[in-house]
Design a protein that fits this description.
This protein is an alpha+beta fold and 126 residues long. The chain contains 2 helices and 6 strands, in the order αββαββββ. The protein has helices at residues 7-14, 44-59; strands at residues 22-23, 29-30, 63-72, 75-85, 94-103, 108-118. The strands form 2 sheets. It has a 4-stranded antiparallel sheet with strand order 3-4-5-6. Strand 3 (63-72) and strand 4 (75-85) form a beta hairpin.
Length: 126
C-alpha cells in the first residue's frame, strides 16, 4: 500500500467494497450479507466476495486478493491474501495467506492463517 493510502483507497483499487456492520431491530450487530437458506451452493464469484468481506470484518484488515477458490462437499474453501505488516519498500511488507471455509450459503465457517511471507518472496517449485 502506498504511503498515506487508507483501506478505502486500497479497496477501490482492488475492486473490493468494504463492509460495514449493520444493526438489526435488537440493536446487536449483524452480518452485512443477508442470510440465505437455499439448497443451491452460492456461485464462485459470490463465494470469493463473501470470503473477502467476512474475513475483513474479522481481522480488521482489507484482504489483497483471493489466490485460490475450490468447491468442497458442503460449500467453498478459499485462500485469501492479507497484508499483516506494511513496510517501505513494499517488497518487504509481510503478508499472510488465510484458508477460509464457507458453507453452501456463503457464510464463513472457519479460517486459519496457513502461511506468512514477504511480498518480494517468490515460491520455488518443489
Amino acid at each position: 500500500m502506498a504511503a498515506g493510502e487508507d483501506d478505502g483507497a486500497r479497496a477501490a483499487k482492488a475492486g473490493v467494497r468494504p463492509v460495514a456492520p449493520r444493526s438489526g431491530a435488537s440493536g446487536r450487530t449483524e452480518s452485512a450479507a443477508p442470510t440465505r437458506r437455499s439448497r443451491r451452493r452460492v456461485s464462485a464469484g459470490e463465494a470469493m466476495r463473501t470470503a473477502v468481506e467476512q474475513l475483513a470484518e474479522l481481522l480488521g484488515r482489507l484482504p489483497e486478493s483471493v489466490s485460490a477458490l475450490r468447491p468442497v462437499d458442503d460449500g467453498w474453501q478459499a485462500d485469501v491474501e492479507v497484508v499483516e505488516l506494511e513496510r517501505i519498500p513494499e517488497t518487504t511488507s509481510v503478508l499472510a495467506s488465510y484458508r477460509v471455509t464457507l458453507d453452501r450459503d456463503g457464510e464463513l465457517q472457519s479460517y486459519a492463517r496457513v502461511r506468512r511471507y514477504t511480498r518480494g518472496q517468490v515460491d520455488r517449485p518443489t
